[in-house]
Amino acid sequence: MSDLSRHTSVNVDSASVSPAYIGLVCPKYYLALATLAAASAFAQIPDGLKPYVSEDARVLVLDHVRVIDGTGAAAAEDQRIDIEGGKITRVQSAQLTDAYPAGAKVLDLTGKTVIPGLVGMHEHLFYPTPKGGSDGLAMYGEMADSAPRLYLAAGVTTARTAGSMEPYVDLALKKMIDARQRPGPKLHVTAPYIGDFAGFIPSFTR
Questions:
Q1: Of the candidates 117, 146, 172, which is a domain's last residue?
Q2: pTM of the predicted protein model
Q3: Cis ω for the linkage preceding 19 (within 30 of 0)
Q4: Closest of 90, 96, 66 to residue 78, by C-alpha
Q5: What dihedral do alpha carbons 34, 39, 42, 48 form, nearest 10°?
Q6: Are 151 and 185 in contact (CB under 8 A)?
Q7: CA 20 to chain CA centroid, nearest Å
Q8: What secondary structure does DSSP assign to 26-89, as a single string?
Q9: pLDDT tens by residue, 156-199
Q10: What are phi and psi of 60, to 5 degrees?
């Protein structure tokens, strides 16, 4: 699924600021484009997010990009995207001679592709930990720090978890992201598991 939102964002290296609704696909790797919500588009970037933001211009133009809009339509080549005050205000052919918005920072992104942010519908904030030998128990560790940034780096700007190991940690993390204290996608947090899985994953026991 894709996040077809009115809001967009400024660029980040390997993570982004929620909510972020536009992605940039590079030839050999993927970058999530960071966006600040329109309501905070003119606010100072919090210190905790500054390391992840590389473009914070009030008016930004993504020039000469390929656009995939997520509707199933064919990709549109050589497009120009104008972003003003945290919102996409115009998408048009880069071949048109319309003037750039006043004060815009123009990025020549020839060879890059812009897509909507992805909506992950079955995501986790935990990951299997190493077993203590071939007969070790299957255990899972919370990834509250790295998981949100990894999702953003993969273009996921909205994520719904599908079960939780540490529900209160997940809820606290969501609050921090919403408050712009930590980078991460917009999170929809689900409840913990009820009972273990097939009787051999203690982490699932409640």
A1: 117
A2: 0.74
A3: yes
A4: 66
A5: -50
A6: yes
A7: 5
A8: -SSSEEEEP---GGGTTSPPPTTTGGGBS---SEEEEEEEEE--SSSPPPEEEEEEEEETTEEE
A9: 999 999 989 899 999 999 999 999 999 999 999 998 887 766 66
A10: -130, 140
Taking the CB of residue 43, how many other CB atoms lie within 10 A of it? 11
- Convert the pLDDT of each residue in 35-44 to its tens digit: 333 333 445 7
CATH code: domain of residue 92 = 2.30.40
- Residue 185 domain boundaries: 118-204
**pLDDT at 84 > cutoff 80:** yes
Structure tokens at 71: 């509707």
Q: How far apart are CA 52 and CA 71, in angstroms?
A: 29
And the tokens for 204? 């699932």
Gap between the Cα atoms of 31 and 193, Å rounded? 33
